[in-house]
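Protocol step 4 of 6: structure prediction from sequence.
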Amino acid sequence: MTQPTHAPLLPNFMAGRWQTGSGEGTPLYDPVLGSELARVSSAGIDLAAGFAFARDQGGAALRALSYGQRAALLNAIVAVLQTHRDAYYEIATANSGTVAKDSAVDIDGAIFTLGYYAKQGQALGEARLLLDGPRIRMAKDPAFQTQHIQVPTQGVALFINAFNFPSWGLWEKAAPALLAGVPVIIKPATATAWLTQRMVKDVVDAGILPAGALSVICGSSAGLMDQLKPFDVVSFTGSAETGKIIRSHRAVTEMSVRCNIEADSLNSALLAPHATPESEAFKLLVSEVVREMTVKSGQKCTAIRRIFVPRAVYQAAAEAIAAKLSKISVGNPRNETVRMGALVSQEQKASVLAGLAQLKSEASVLFDGNNQALVDAEATSACVAPVLLGTENPLNAKILHAVEVFGPVSTLMPYDSIEEAYAMIRLGEGSLVCSVYSEDPAFTAQASIELASSHGRVHAISPDVAALHSGHGNVMPMSLHGGPGRAGGGEELGGLRALHFYHRRSAVQGSSLALDLLAAQAATLTF
């Protein structure tokens, strides 16, 4: 009998060498065409040996370098990634189903973030540790003082990443970790692992990093958390349910492995109370909502899920958003007329449709792009068009404030007072970002204070920054990324603040003469 032919298995890079997992592996598909692209497997890989190699060989080699020297490694990685950029776009089109501008958010965003941290590291120069605050006298005689310092943790950083950003998700974590002097092991989400694996391969082939500094394991995550030891760190991006499993693992609960979680988030957009359909603030909100619903097909942890507007403009907002959404062509990203591609997999399509059905139990459909024909794609593809929902009684809703549909879906909600709007926004129980649209700086400042405690980021958009702002959903390396409560409670990026996660703080109490020698090897961490 003729055996079925499968796409090749992508090798893993562990313990300083390429290793192919055993078995048939898990297939990766083109979400538009349905064709099999590759397979991944981590079965049979000696994880303990891989973690030990990274910890002992990679960590020691990285810590032997200064921050400036490690920054130079990041610059070299940037050059390699730029050389292979076209290949990454082809992989993104095939495996993630994204149009070129959406692939750019992932690929070019990653390269930009690496470059940013390379520049930040250069400023730290030849330092090998960081000073954390000024010296503090411990006695009347100034000879005895204490100095808080930060040094790289002598462990490994395990990254368990989400499917939506196989490039940026890798490098936004790896850049500060490598700059800090900590080796990284990346576990990409299976559905879109190809791009992550290819980028790691290109960097490994270029011979930039010390052996053990960068590893990738594709396929099942079984056993990864079991390899962690007390001075390791783990960072996860994905569902709140998986986040709970990670937090409950004995590595975290018993060994105090440092853990960073970025999970589901019901992000909001807030239009100022006195805005009218003719105001610039109204127009800016409409444009940003449409962009956030359609970029990456709404598959962004920072996308706008709830839209809060004054009740007087609810109907106008519904019509304006629907009018713009009606012009979004959906289908095969290879067709130049297509503005929005597919979800990354059939599993994600099923999840979005199931979640949409839940939301419809409390909201009505204001616009459904699925009534329009797909471009160069079959109905059996993973394409889902934008859907705008709405409810005129958001205070009575529960599901709308609790369920995130990870796709091109958003819900419009009116408010009768700004206090009511703040209360409904907080029903999300902690989010990554809320954007505020106003022409009044005083309102923006007050809204920022009200929203800051429940959001990792407040993105304030006004006419004077209309052409300058980075976007509600764009995560920039100089700003904090993360959020409290159900958003995971984690923090990433934020410039050099990102280095904190990969360092250990210690208070050195002793002679000012010894502290002088410490300071000679250190850089002062300022923000």
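Step 5 (inspection) to follow. Residues 100-124 form the longest helix (25 residues).
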